[in-house]
Amino acid sequence: MARIVAGIGTSHVPAIGAAIDLGKTQEPYWTRVFDGFEESKTWIANEKPDVCIVVYNDHATAFSVDLIPTFALGCAAEFPPADEGWGPRPVPVVPGHPKLATHIAQSVILDEFDLTICNKMEVDHGLTVPLNLLFGKVDKWPCPIIPLAVNVVQFPPPTGNRCYNLGKAIRKAVESYPEDLKVMIFGTGGLSHQISGPRAGFINSHWDKNFLDGLTSDPVGLTKIRHVEYMREAGAEGIEMVMWLVMRGALNDDVKEVRRFYTVPASNTAVGHIILDNRT
Ligand code: DHB
Ligand code: FE
User: Fold this and answer.
1) What CATH number does the domain containing 206 carry?
2) Which pLDDT score, from 0 to 100, does residue 62 have?
3) Is the distance from the beta carbon of residue 193 to the nearest atom of ligand 1 less than 6 Å?
4) Which atom of ligand 1 is nearest to the CA of 269?
5) Three-state SS for 280?
6) Is 103 assigned a catalytic role?
7) Residue 5: predicted pLDDT
8) Looking at residue 210, what is its pLDDT?
9) Residue 49, CB half-sphere, CA atoms under 13 Å: how many?
10) What is the pLDDT of residue 120?
């Protein structure tokens, strides 16, 4: 049977992708960010997951604003990097896992979570930057990826509680898949940031650190945070943090925090990272 062995949270700031693509990772501004992921890269290379489910948001790239699914699951065999205005990022095409993805779609939809099934989808920095942070700059991604896109772009996004419960349904789906697969789940985006308006550049480290603490030891407490609170305390784009609750919902109540990293800023954003081992 397939098992979710770990959850990984990480920011997905597009400038991190640009730093990699333009060969700037050795600049002091960027070593501060990338050094924080070195141990995690070694950890995941040793762990060798068979599949990663990556919960991320599309930034009006693949879907545009014509069509905004609340939850969209990538069931295709592959996902090309999207053109976000400067041509597609020079990263490998992302391989999918159609068999497990369609199994998850069937299980969670029958559990009354109405996912949109995507049999063709491009992926933006929300997905490719986290892959780079954990797997590095590679010619080929090391395992199949199942993208799960969450709407945090146009109001109303799903609540944190809905995201957490979707995580639980995903766990049930994975554990009913007969093949022995070592699965990891990523929650991406955040932490606090605001990229436009009078508060552009707003960051709240106190809030971010409490969120990371809660993620490990009181996730149910985090599910009570309302949209307006994310907006006020974590900036207009801080709502991306609800996606970390899908990841957390897919794990045990008790998990072991094996890694945490936090630095301010990358571009406009507080970079947060956590690894939660689910085998305790
Ligand atoms: C920034 C961060 C994001 O998460 C994003 O999607 C776009 C921009 C930023 O910090 O500039
Ligand atoms: Fe984003």
Assistant:
1) 3.40.830.10
2) 93
3) yes
4) 10
5) coil
6) no
7) 98
8) 98
9) 29
10) 98
Q: Is residue 52 helix, strand or coil? A: strand
Range of the domain at 101: 3-277
CA of 33 to the centre of ligand 2 (A): 17
Q: Tell me the one-letter amino acid at 122.
A: E
- Given this model, what pLDDT does residue 280 score? 79
Residues 93 and 141: their CA atoms lie apart, in Å, by 8
Atom number of ligand 1 nearest to Cα 190: 4
Letter for the amino acid at 27?
Answer: E
Could you give the CA distance from residue 4 to residue 49 in angstroms, rounded to a whole number?
A: 9
Q: Confirm or reject: Cβ of 195 under 6 Å from ligand 1.
A: yes
Q: Is the CB of 248 under 6 A from ligand 1?
A: no
Q: Which two tokens stand for residue 78?
A: 């592959």
Per-10-residue mean pLDDT of the chain, 280 residues long, equals: 98 98 98 98 98 98 94 98 97 98 98 97 98 98 99 97 98 98 98 97 98 98 98 98 99 98 98 96
Tell me phi and psi for residue 266, to 5 degrees: -125, 120
* Residue 12 near ligand 1, beta carbon < 6 Å: yes
CA dihedral 52, 242, 60, 99 (to 10 degrees): 30
